[in-house]
Specification:
Blueprint (H helix, E strand, L loop, with lengths): L10 H7 L9 E8 L6 E2 L7 E3 L1 H13 L4 E7 L16 H13 L4 E6 L21 H18 L3 E4 L6 H10 L13 E8 L6 H6 L19 H13 L3 E5 L5 H10 L4 E4 L2 H12 L5 H15 L3 E3 L3 H10 L1
Parallel strand pairs: 1-3, 1-4, 1-10, 4-5, 5-6, 6-7, 7-8, 8-9, 9-10
Antiparallel strand pairs: 2-3
The protein binds ligand PBG.
The site of ligand PBG has 11 residues, from helix 6.
């Protein structure tokens, strides 16, 4: 008789036939560096996740490298914001300072990535600059993104995470980075682009918005995708691949595993998925109440994201998971 249970009989058999495995190198840790603090501060809505000072950022990057992670993704929380997000491309802006610190602390042991978006730096909280009617001006924003990209590349980031969902952002940033210095350009042809390709307007970003002290009023539905749309996730990904994305990403992860599977099928470059703040907060809150087995739920959630097709998973638990994997 055919008995699938035969291969489930012992832990060793199950480990042998596991179709999907987690490895620290597949994991990327998002990190927040905040201007004007000297000690790390816990983010209320994300228990266990910190706002880092410049010193504690270096320490977190060293721990991530010791744990064998694939990379870190940096977000900056500035003290001052303005209409155009001028802190974003200021070499002394908090994110660009953070990149330099992380690059030094990483010492080549993991990949330093930076979030490329204006929302943390604008006083209105949108991912781009506004037009005369208060709408997000796509093409004027692209110019800001190119300038931000050059600043991040100059600071030493290896991979830029384009999370703003403006049309044409990958092409614009790729062209801007590629312009040779001989023509007065930036001369960063080797800086890679991780495109947030299928990024949905999601309630699961709530805790992150607390984390970056978002000033947003309203929502991002004119640029982030509608949760109803699966086919469009493929369309956005196809465009980013044409525009030159080196890595494509689906975000959030858990509610979009169908989109992730589609993207993994169609992509000829590595595929990432972002397990976002709300996904983190849900499991932490349930575990804190004793309603769910914390470690089991964390591992299952990340395994599910890999099984759906992600090569790379961004998760706030990256360093902790790597520690667990090392225990076996
Ligand atoms: C936008 C951005 C968002 C996240 C990272 N970068 C989403 C948003 O505020 O719309 C979400 C990350 C998370 O929730 O963990 N630059």
């Amino acid at each position: 008789m055919t008995r699938p249970r035969r291969l489930r009989a012992t832990p060793a058999l199950r480990a042998l036939v596991a179709e999907t495995r987690l490895h620290p190198r597949d994991l990327v840790l998002p990190l927040f560096v905040k201007e004007g603090i000297t000690e790390p501060v816990e983010i209320t809505s994300m228990p266990g996740v910190l706002h880092h000072s410049e010193e504690s950022l270096a320490q977190a990057v060293r721990e991530a490298a010791d744990a064998g992670l694939g990379g870190v993704m940096l977000f900056g929380v500035p003290e001052h914001r303005d209409a155009t997000g001028s802190g974003a491309d200021d070499p002394e802006g908090i994110l660009n300072r953070g990149i330099r610190i992380a690059v030094e602390a990483a010492a080549g042991r993991l990949v330093v990535m930076a979030d490329l978006c204006l929302d943390e730096f604008t006083d209105h909280g949108h991912c781009g600059v506004l037009d005369a009617h208060g709408g997000v001006d796509n093409d004027a924003t692209l110019e800001r993104y190119v300038s931000m990209a050059v600043a991040q590349a100059q600071a030493g980031a290896t991979v830029l995470g384009l999370s703003g969902m403006m049309d044409g952002q990958v092409f614009a940033v790729r062209s801007g980075l590629d312009q040779s210095t001989a023509n007065g350009g930036a001369g960063f042809p080797d800086t890679a682009i991780l495109a947030y390709s299928a990024k949905y307007a999601s309630a699961f970003y709530g805790p992150f918005r607390d984390a970056v002290e978002s000033t947003l009023v309203g929502d991002r539905r004119t640029y982030q995708m509608d949760a109803a749309n699966r086919r469009e996730g493929g369309r956005e990904t196809a465009l980013d691949l044409l525009e030159g994305a080196d890595i494509v990403m689906v975000k959030p992860a858990m509610s979009y595993l169908d989109v992730l599977a589609d993207v993994a099928e169609q992509s000829d470059v590595p595929v990432a998925a972002y397990q976002v703040s709300g996904e983190y907060a849900m499991i932490e809150a349930a575990a804190a109440n004793g309603w769910i087995d914390r470690r089991g739920a964390i591992l299952e959630s990340v395994l599910g994201i890999k099984r759906a097709g992600a090569d790379i998973v961004l998760t706030y638990w990256a360093t902790e998971i790597a520690g667990w994997l090392g225990e076996r």
